Amino acid sequence: MRITLNGTAAEVEGTTLSAALDEMGYGGARVATAVNETFVPATGRADHALRDGDRVEVLAPRQGG
What CA–CA distance (Å, rounded) separates 52 from 60? Predict the structure, then answer.
């Protein structure tokens, strides 16, 4: 299915947010996620079904001063 990941078109086979994150290399990363501008907590990713055309945002925390 085609999704938009952080503003870039991507093709994924996973049908859940968790599966798509694994597929895109974010599997064990501590990140924040949103689908179609709605926050999805880590505990809900395995149950969150993706649909063709969804917009997925993945944000990683940054450290610095």
Answer: 24
